[in-house]
Known about the structure:
Order of helices and strands: HEEEEEEHEE
Mean pLDDT: 77
Structural class: alpha+beta
CATH superfamily of the largest domain: Immunoglobulins
CATH topology of the largest domain: Immunoglobulin-like
CATH class of the largest domain: Mainly Beta
Helix content: 10-25%
Largest sheet: 5 strands, antiparallel
Distance between the termini: 74 Å
Amino acid sequence: MKTGVRRRCLMLGLAVLGSTLFGGCAGLQLGLQKPEVAVADLRLLDGNLIEQRFVLTLRVTNPNTTEIAIEGLTFTVDLNGQSFAKGVSNKPVVIPRLGEGRVEVVATTGLGGILRQLNAFRDGRDKVDYRLRGRLVTGNFGGIDFDQQGEVALPRGLSDLGKGTAPSGGTERF
């Protein structure tokens, strides 16, 4: 092989490698911090035996001095270490600099996701571990991955339902 051809192949290989390495960093400009994404609210939208849909309100906190224009997002929700729901949104929102914004998204789960979680009630757990991960799709920055973990306390008496006992009283709100 001639030196000129070898040199072109080497340059092409380096260009591909460089674009791959820098592509992973395209989500944030240099010096910007990742925004924090947390669950602010969850409510049942509709459902049947096979599929359930929830409205999930996410709070996006921007610690930067530059606003972040979000064009949409993709996400998955794990409960107790197991896949539970997923969703996408194409609703644009601008998160102000040094501020926060709320994004409502629809999360969809199926019968399998619900059945897997019944074990948490049978074990008498009073908390549910969750993990929310996904990607904020941005026009300016390409995209920003997020991964948030935490736990949520179950309302009093709800963990007793899996044991076959009814909650005490009749006026408790869940």
